[in-house]
Structures are given as structure tokens and as C-alpha cells.
Specification:
The complex is a heterodimer. The longest helix of chain A has 31 residues. Chain A is built from eight helices and two strands; from the N terminus they run αααααααββα. Chain A has a two-stranded antiparallel sheet. Helix content of chain A is 63%, strand content 2%. In chain B, a hairpin with a 4-residue loop joins β6 and β7. The longest helix of chain B has 45 residues. Classes of the chains: A mainly alpha, B alpha+beta. At the A-B interface, α4, α5 and α7 of A face α1 of B.
Chain lengths: 214, 264
């Protein structure tokens, strides 16, 4: 028997494609628009969400039998906010440079619908280990879309990947710039993220007809 | 036996317990980590000041690299962060200008420019920190500046010579848009300021404008009081121009005085 049972493995693999939180559940769009102008920011946001969602799901799952249903949303919000603040403080103390890159996005994690969605839909009804896997799986699904969007936006908008020039030097006109290519400033604007997410949804649904709703 | 979690009394008790537990946890985390965070902020200021005067780990073009925080021998057999050792080596004098009078203050780098700006707004006198550094026999006057970007605060350090010509600059921001306004922290933008003049030939303060669509995108002309703007970051660029004009102008009397003293 492997490390994960078939059922457990599905918790990780399902959100990567056929139950992706962004393209199928259409959650977490706001942060996908805001931070995907750079690949590095997309990666950092993906890792931060993975941490908060993984741990948060476990905490909510551990408390699932004692949370009063009337205030469960507030409790979930407190858990995610507390986790985000702790992550922020620890990063500030021990990884100051990284915390500066993260600072804008940390706040966005609290408003990320995926987190509240997973707490509400999964962690409140499942055991901690399965909740943890579900959190990691969903965060991975979220991160993959962010990375795809970030890749196209940074490449076509700035001509770089992770800040490294790959299309040549725009000022000295080397690489594809010498062929007349210009950086497309529109790619750096938030609406372009929405268009790329739309294209991903289109490609995904045209490949898998089962995803199309009647 | 299953608990009745729907009772009002249980809900209230749960809420109180939750607030106490989370509150204590956060308070404990914050108070434990505070000294480490303050130390990190102090070293960051030192790195930024040194960066502006050209003491950094940069090679060629690309990302900005600061003097590192690794522990090195500080000369007296003890270990200190490299940035603090370099700061003590290169920054020869730290001044605080108040009401036109410049006084030496070894803790000038700890002055909070934001608080000083607020003080001036409320009718108080603003203390202006100024760092004097010497590198390769050349003197640099490094001034902190602070202003508003599109979303939040932007700030920086500008190194000047005695004629108020920019020798180096460092800009940073709290929450500008990645890929757009956040690019004020990119080397290609900061390096453009090098050599730009702040004063006209007649000695009138003019500042530097972050200009869109100017005729000098490579920024080869150094006396046009303009640097090329960042695409898609108009408001952040305007914020940079404004903070340079507003904050650096305050230092002009000091430089005039400096000139008078050297000509006498």
C-alpha cells in the first residue's frame, strides 16, 4: 500500500484539474487578478495559501464537533486571520526579505474565498488528515492556475520570467525585440488575468466535455 | 454524550474562550518576535542607506543586491552583521537638521520620517536626518524621503553631492502593483536618477519629474530634470516626483550653507 489510499490521493489530484477551485468552482478569482503580473508573486502566493489552507483545515477539522453552528463563519474567519498574522510575523522576524514580497498578498489570503469555502465544505465534516490533504490539494490547484496566468502575463507583458529577461533586452532591442516585438502593457493589467483564466476554462472544458453544464 | 452546541450560553462561552485563546496566542507571538523584527528593520535601513551611496553587492545589471546581513568579525573580535560593520565604516557622520541647525546624532537613522512629516503637518518642527558617507574619497549626502504611491506609502533614500546632483537612489514601496508601480524598486528605474540635477544653474530648486513620453527614454540627457516613466504606473511615478520635490527641497538651505562655508 502506498502512502495514501486511493480515496486520499483523489483529495490531492481532483482539485488540480477536474475540480479546480479557480476554473471549476470559480473561487479565488480576486487574488488571481491582483497578483499574477509576476511569476514570483504567483509562486509566493501559492505557497502562502498552501500553508494557511493546510493548517487551517486541520484546525477547523479538530474543532468541528465543538464549534457552535451559529457563529461558525466567524470562527473560521478568526482561524484564518490568526494563521495569516502568525505567518506574517514569523516571516518578518526570520525571513524579512520574503515577508516584504509577501506583505501585500498576506492580507489577500484572508479574503480568499477558497479558504473559507474549504473550511465550510470539507473541514467541518471530515477528519484532520483528510482535511489536510484537501487543503493541500486545493491550494495546489489554485497555485497551478496562478502560475500559468503569471507565466503568460510576465512573459508577454515584461519579457521576463521570475525577473530574468528571456525575450532579450527591450532597450537595446536584442532577442525577439529586434524582430519588432514590443512588451504588451495590457498583459500587466488585471483584466488580462481574467481573460487568461477564461481561456484556461475554455481549453479545459473543450478537452473534457463532462465539465460542461447544461 | 454529544454536546449541545446550539445553546446560546454555549455559543457565548465558546466565543469568549476563542477570543482569549487566539488573542493570547497573537499577543505572545507579537511580543516574542518584536525585538527580532525591530533588529531586521534597523538593518534594512542601513542596507538602504548604503545602497543609495553605492555600497552594495550589485554586479552588472539585474536585481538589486544589498550588503548582506551575515555575521562577520567587527574588528574587536566580536561577530556583527556585515551591514552594520559596513555602515559604521562608510557613514562618517549622521546629522539631524532642526530649524535650520544641523546637529550630530548617531541614532539619526532611527528617525521615523513618517512621524516627522505628521509633526510638521500639525504645526511642529520637522527633524531632517542626513547621513554623510565617504566612499573612495568622495563625499555623499544621503537623505531619506517619503511620499504616497497609488495604494500606499512609498519611500526612499537619495544620495547627493554638494551641488545637489543625484549620485544614487533607492526607492521602496509598501503595496504598489506588482509589475507596474512596484517597479520603482527595479534597478533600471533607480539607476536612471544617477547624475540628474535638482537645482537649476541659477540655484533654484527644480526637482526631478518622472516623465511619460519624454524624448530621452534611455535617460542619457542628465540636465533635463526628467527620468523616463514606468509603463502603466502613472500615479506611482507622480508620487516619486512629488516626494523628491517636497522632501529634498527641505535640504536645500543646508547645501547652500555648505557651499558658503566651502567658498569662504
Amino acid at each position: 500500500m502506498g502512502l495514501l489510499s486511493k480515496k486520499d490521493a483523489k483529495l490531492i489530484t481532483d482539485p488540480l484539474a477536474d475540480n479546480n477551485p479557480i476554473t471549476i468552482q470559480v473561487l479565488g478569482i480576486c487574488s488571481a487578478l491582483a497578483i499574477t503580473a509576476e511569476l514570483k508573486a504567483s509562486l509566493v502566493m501559492g505557497i502562502a495559501v498552501m500553508f494557511v489552507l493546510g493548517i487551517g483545515n486541520v484546525v477547523i477539522s479538530l474543532m468541528r464537533n465543538i464549534i457552535p453552528s451559529k457563529i461558525r463563519i466567524i470562527v473560521q474567519l478568526i482561524v484564518v486571520a490568526a494563521l495569516v498574522i502568525i505567518v506574517d510575523q514569523v516571516l518578518k522576524a526570520f525571513a524579512y526579505e520574503l515577508s516584504k514580497t509577501l506583505s501585500v498578498f498576506i492580507g489577500l489570503i484572508i479574503t480568499n474565498c477558497i479558504i473559507m469555502g474549504r473550511f465550510e465544505a470539507f473541514a467541518l465534516a471530515n477528519k484532520p488528515w483528510r482535511s489536510f490533504l484537501d487543503g493541500i490539494g486545493n491550494a495546489l490547484g489554485y497555485a497551478i492556475i496562478l502560475l500559468i496566468v503569471g507565466f503568460f502575463r510576465e512573459l508577454l507583458g515584461s519579457g521576463t520570467l521570475f525577473g530574468i529577461p528571456v525575450l532579450g533586452d527591450p532597450i537595446e532591442k536584442t532577442g525577439v525585440y529586434s524582430l519588432g516585438y514590443e512588451n504588451n502593457g495590457f498583459m500587466l493589467m488585471p483584466p488580462m488575468a481574467l481573460i487568461i483564466v477564461g481561456l484556461i476554462i475554455w481549453v479545459q472544458r473543450s478537452r473534457n466535455k463532462a465539465l460542461i453544464e447544461d | 454524550m454529544a454536546m449541545d452546541t446550539d445553546k446560546n450560553s454555549y455559543t457565548i462561552l465558546f466565543a469568549i474562550a476563542m477570543v482569549l485563546v487566539v488573542g493570547s496566542l497573537l499577543a505572545f507571538t507579537a511580543s516574542t518576535l518584536k525585538p527580532t523584527i525591530l533588529e531586521q528593520e534597523r538593518m534594512e535601513k542601513q542596507q538602504n542607506i548604503l545602497y543609495a551611496m553605492g555600497v552594495n553587492g550589485n554586479e552588472g545589471t539585474g536585481d538589486i543586491t544589498f550588503v548582506s546581513k551575515e555575521l562577520v568579525d567587527n574588528g574587536s573580535g566580536k561577530k556583527s552583521p556585515k551591514v552594520s560593520v559596513e555602515f559604521a565604516k562608510y557613514i562618517t557622520k549622521q546629522l539631524v537638521i532642526e530649524n535650520g541647525v544641523a546637529k550630530e546624532d548617531k541614532q539619526a537613522y532611527l528617525i521615523d520620517v513618517k512621524k516627522e512629516q505628521a509633526k510638521a503637518k500639525n504645526g511642529g518642527t520637522r527633524r531632517l536626518p542626513l547621513f554623510i558617507g565617504v566612499k573612495d574619497g568622495k563625499t555623499y549626502y544621503i537623505t531619506p524621503i517619503r511620499g504616497k504611491g497609488l495604494w500606499d506609502a512609498i519611500w526612499g533614500y537619495v544620495a547627493l553631492d554638494e551641488n545637489m546632483v543625484v549620485q544614487g537612489a533607492f526607492f521602496d514601496h509598501k503595496g504598489e502593483t506588482p509589475g507596474l508601480g512596484a517597479n520603482i524598486k527595479q534597478r533600471y528605474f533607480m539607476d536612471d536618477f544617477e547624475g540628474e540635477k535638482l537645482l537649476t544653474d541659477a540655484g533654484v530648486f527644480k526637482g526631478i519629474t518622472v516623465a511619460k513620453g519624454n524624448n530621452d527614454p534611455k535617460n542619457l540627457i542628465k540636465d533635463d530634470y526628467e527620468v523616463d516613466a514606468l509603463a502603466g504606473a502613472t500615479i506611482t511615478g507622480d508620487g516619486v516626483s512629488a516626494m523628491i520635490k517636497k522632501d529634498l527641497k527641505l535640504y536645500q538651505p543646508y547645501f547652500e550653507n555648505l557651499k558658503k562655508l566651502s567658498s569662504n
